[in-house]
Request: fold
Amino acid sequence: MQEITLPVASVSRLVIVEVLDSTQNLARELALQGTPDGTLVLAYEQTGGRGQYERTWNAKRGGIYFTLVLRPKQTVSHMGPLALRAAQAVCDTLHKMFDLKTKIKHPNDVLVWEAKTKKWKKICGILIESSTEANQTQWLLVGIGINVNNPLPPSLTDIATSVKKLLGREIDPEWILQETLESFFTQYAQWQLSSQI
Reply:
């Protein structure tokens, strides 16, 4: 495990792991150990990436796989609005950086328009978890996986795509990570304000 400083003001700690079963699992362990608000767990490859309904998959090297540990001050009863804001952050990033046409598939996927096949295909999945104790939110986990340069298994090519496939060239994943985090923390701040009303 390696720790470095990431130049995004809202990230307090960065934990990088080469290969991991799931960033969500490690983030939960760290949250239980008291890791600070804004901890980012990043993996280059996931052997047991997790999604809705406890589905798992092998997320190959070349994508962006991370989980943020957040400790909001207010108690949160419903995660749906935060999942939508996280998805919107990804949509905004892909549109801003590459002019890609995106939409949110409720509750936790981002789809992108693939002009060649004239289909909407999945490019990102989001997983939100939380822990509440004595009516107080202890932590939130926001997991995001974006297909950037990673190869997709043949069984998924009809329903999923990647930035590389859409643009025909490799993209620096760290560049997308930086932009996604900046966009997410803007959305997160707005969500916190709206949750206090």
Q: What stands out?
A: The chain is about 30% helix and 35% strand. Residues 1-5 have pLDDT under 50 and may be disordered. The chain has one domain: 2-195. The longest strand covers residues 119-133.
